[in-house]
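Illustration 12: Protein kish.
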Amino acid sequence: MSAIFNFQSLLTVILLLICTCAYLRALAPSIIDKNKTGLLGIFWKCARIGERKSPWVACCCVIMAFSILFLQ
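Figure caption equivalent — predicted structure in token form:
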């Protein structure tokens, strides 16, 4: 089933996108920072969420990992 129609898969994809964008911005800020508007601005916004809400994102990642490993 597609990640769009399965809510847990959609949440997993969004968490992975946030974590990946935050990681890439930490390694090379110029890649993410040059596109703050438009379609590619989504990656900048995800990086900002990952940086500012880092403890919450980490908690969600742990909960999602537990859910995928033990509840499915």
